[in-house]
Every structure is written in C-alpha cells, then in structure tokens.
Known about the structure:
L-type_Lectin-RKs; Jelly Rolls; receptor; 28 strands; alpha+beta; Phosphorylase Kinase, domain 1; about 25% helix; single chain; 4 domains
Amino acid sequence: MEAWGLNVLTLAITYMLHLDLDVAVALRFEQPSFNVTDDKLGISFPKQDPSWYHGQDASFQNNEIWLNPNPNEVLTRRESNIGRIIYKDPIQFTADMSFLTCFSFEIITTATFPLSGSGFAFFISASKTAPAHSTGRYLGLVSPTEENENGQFDFFAVEFDTHKSDGIDDPSGSHIGIDINSVKSYAYADSSPGSPLFPRLFLYNNYTFTAWVEYNASTRLIQVSMINATSPTPCLGSPLDTRLLALRSFYNLSTLFRNRTMYIGFSATNNASEDGMQGVGLFSWSFCNEGENGRDTSNDVLKLLCEVLLPLFLGCLFCIAGLYVYRKWRTNSRTSPQRDGLPQTDEELTSSRGKVAQQFSLIELRKATQAFNEANKIAEGAFGIVYRGTLHDGSLVAVKKLKQGVRKEQEFEAEMHVIHKCRHRNLLQLRGWCYEKGEAMLVYDFMEKGSLDWYIYGKDKVSMEVLDSEVRLNILRDVARALEYLHFHSPTRIVHRDVKAANVILTNKFHAMLADFGLSRLVPDPDEKEVIVINEAAGTLGSLAPEVFNGIVSDKSDVYSYGVLALEVAYGRKMIDKSLEKDRYLLDWVWALKEQGSLLEELHSEVRASMHTNHADQWKKVLHIALLCSDPAPEARPSMKQVCQVLEESSEGSLRLLQEPLPLTKPPRPDAVQFILSSYSSARL
C-alpha cells in the first residue's frame, strides 16, 4: 500500500514539475568551454529590439564566445555593439538563495589607457534583453531613456569597466564594481596604475582573468575574487591559493530577488572610436545556487498544483494521507537512543570520555524547534542560525542549523565524534548532531544566561545584571583556557576560527564556556608546523587576523581574535564601533589610547567602578597581552599557552611575555587588508 502510494505521488510530482520546464530553481551549470557542436550548450543569445539596436551580436569563435569582436581581427569595422548572452532558462530566485559563479575571460584593447572601452559585466537581471539604448557606459544593463517601472529592469551586476565615464562616479578607466539597479557602482575597487590591485588586475594589459563572484545570503556578503592567467583555464582547475580578493561588500540581495524569476548572463558594450576598439572573449563559465529551502516549496508549486487535473489532484491527496500514516508508524516504532549528560565535574569529565555523540533525527529536531520557527530563533552568525528547542523529555537545547552544506555525511559524523571527545570545563559540550537530507545541525544544552555580547554591549538589554571587573577578568581567563586546550591538549589539534563575544556562553555563575568550536577546522599536529589553506575568509570582520584574508588559518589566527575580544571586554565596545568616528575599528582606537598613555582611563565604566587596587595591574597585563595578540604578523603573537601563563600569573611565562615591549606606534596592516576594511567602512549598510 505504502509503496503504491509513494510511486503514484512520485509520478504526480514529476508531472507537475514538467508543466514548466523553462524555469530553473536549483541550478548547477558548468561550461568549461563553448563548443558550438556541443548539444548540451546551456546558453542563448537574446535578440535586441531592432528599433534602436543595429550593432553586432555576440558570436562563437574557436570554442569561445566573443561578446565584442576581437579588434585585432576586425580592424576595418568600427561599430558600436552590445554583446549579451544568458543561461538558456530563467531562474527562480528565493530570498535565502546564495550563489557562486566562476568565469574566465579576456579583454583585448587596441588603444592606450584609458582611451578604449566600455566594459564587461556578469549580471542577474529581471530583463531578458538589454534595455533600450543601453550602449556604451550603460553596459547593456540600464536604459538612460526608459523608467524602470515595476522592477522590470532590476539587476545585480559585477562590472569590469574599462572607461571612466562622466556622471557616474567611476574611479578610473580600469576598475571593478558591484552594481545594484544602476551603473553607478554600490562599491568598487580601483585597478588602475597606482592602486593596490595594480598591475595584477589592470584591465588594459590584454590579460586573461578567472573571476569568482560569491553571495552568502545569510551574511549578505558579496565577494569578488580573481586570478590573472596567461591563457584560458577552466574555472574548476584554478589553484585556490592564487586568488586575489578584489572586492568585498555587504548588501541584502533578497530585496532585489524577492522570490521572482531572473536571468543570469554576461553583457559587454563597445563604442566606435578612432582611438581603438575593445574585444571581450568569454572562455568558460560555471554557476550554482543554493537556498535553505532547497528545490522549492513556494507559491509556484502551489500554482502548479492548482493547474493539475482534478482526478490526479485527488489521487495525490490520497497518497499524501497514506504517506503520513506510514511515516507516523515509522516514528512511533523507532526506539529512542540514550542521551549523554553534560559533564560538570572533573570526575565526570574523566569517566565520560568513552561516550559518543548522539545522532538526532531531523524529525526530532524539527519537532523540538516547532519546525525551526522564527519565534524560537535566538542567534544568527556567519555559519548558522541557532534555535531554542525542547526535546520530548522536556530538556532545553540550542540547535544550530548550519547555513551551508558540509562535507559528506561520513566525514561530518567522524568529525563530530572527535569534537565530542573535546571535554573541558570551559567548552560548551556538544550534545549531539544531525545530518539528514543535506541538512547539518549541531545540538547543545541551552544556557539561560545567554552569550557574552548581551552583557558587554547591552545587545538586547535583557538583564539588569552587570559584569564587574572581577567577573570580566575571570571570563577572559576562561576563554584563554578553552583555546589553550583546543590548540595544545585536545585529541586532535583544533583552530576555532570565530572567537567572538557572541560565541562565549555564560553559566548561571557567569563562568564562560566557548561555543561553536564544532565549526572549526581540524589542523595537523603542532610539531608539523602547518597551517590550513581555505577558500574564503570565514569569521567576523573586525576580529579576523590579516592572514585569514589570504586564506591562511592557524592557531595564531585564534590568538588575534582573542586579543580583539579582550579589548571588547575591557572597554565595553564592539570590534567595529561607529561612535568612534575616525578610529572606527576598536583596535585602531586602543592603539591611539596607548600612544596617548591613557589605556586605563577609558576602560568601561563598570570596570572602573568595581576595580580594586590590584585590578589595575591585572588590567595593564590584559591590555598588554591583547595588543601583542592582535599584532598583524602571526609570528609576533604569543601562543595561548603563554597568554594563560600571564592571566593566571604563572611567574615563569608571565614575566617573559610582559617584558616583551609593544611597538611605539600601531603596526601597519597589509595593504590588501586595509583596502578590504576601508571598503567595508565606506559601504552603505
């Protein structure tokens, strides 16, 4: 009976999905080259309105697409044109959809900088064809003569602009920009001579580039990274450690996508000029998107249901009812596994090392959190969303639902067991995990006091309790002990990667427990002196070590973040504080205080009010250590073992480290990191 119901339901859903095959929802598209004989070629060439456009369309040549003709091959033809290609089907974007696209291209110019142009762009647009008169500086994206009524020309684009146009604030004739419904860029990076990105991303040297455009819907982070190559290379084969982060900004693209159909593709424009023409060749392209709701569950499916013939619709309802009874029977017949308790004493820590982490089912966690109801949401970070839940035995848990897909289930399970074996009184114990249907979740015991950020900057004003000087010093000691354990004493050496106040959980007695270490990376043995190379700078801007922006992560990255956290606890300010005006970053502001000799005078009012005589010396040590920890050079930072020796006043290690002098002035950040932070500061959030 159940098998028959499932088969009929499968046929019904298949029929419904095929009612509109021209709309893609979840898409993974890879085109390593553009061979015109390939019957799986996934692109199309939309025809422009002949009433205003009479130029040359994009064309194939040698397994490549030339959006603008190669000027070396059409020297006698100086015509303006818009070259535009799109993925063959429109895509249904959702508000929570992240995406990643990669493409290789070349810009060929026959003029000297900056006399050629206009440029090239990747776009996601509501319009299939180029808007009217969108030649030249408008890059085939926006019309200078038509109003954008009802969002018909809404778009997101990343432009590679080769002409400094008047009236739209272009920084130079070679720059990279993020465009939102306008060719006046929301954020940009200058790549002209004299800029930080010159000469590697200079657009006039006839280079071949591979670019990655990434959008994380949960963090609203847009990143554009590139490599400079000498010949066309497929996206998937490019070495990750050679990427250069060109542009990084924040924007909530869900306001643009609004659960509607969009087109993805490329556009390039070229104005006729006696100075010289420009050609743009596209060599490869890949694209994939991902939303938390998977293949869709929204209004489009309901609309399709309504269009199905009545007999088939009734049959589907019958099958769904049968499937519900079947699943209910499976759930009730399942034996509930035994749960581990959270160790509280050293004896329990020792006796419980042999236990394994509990594997929860997706059904259990959905029920516990009321289907991940927004009302149960208690926190959100770069890696996931945390929900309060109540298990069937009445115990409260915090369920962290990871936002992005993780590795294979077997690898995830093995890593969770390793993490579960990490037991320390200052680590929030992992109670269990779930990996099912592509969803990955971590389960912790719920802590009523919440996280440290609620108290040090009054995040939600949920409590009248204050953290005095003694409590804050103890919290910093607790976090340092947790990191020392992860770096030196855990079963497998671990780097946390996101040390911040929101990940420090407080017990009822205000002891600190470091959370989210289950999202860290396992690293080699310390004797091997290796580091991790990653694809992106994961973590929280403001507390990230400079080397992380180049994809390098080690235990010294955690040391840097700890230094920033210590300053937040001491001064009661966020790592990025708009009230600081000129010195927007807390670290810059503290260095200014150090140069003025007024580090203690600006401590948080609660610290100063409760500070005893001996506390002044302790805070001097904390601030000295914090500035050493936050040095831009990893080799100049102490280890967490040394930090613990200072905070716990171990005479041998404490004296040695405290005698290490601080620089007279703030150590400079690497140029690339300063550029990223400056771009963030100037972004219109």
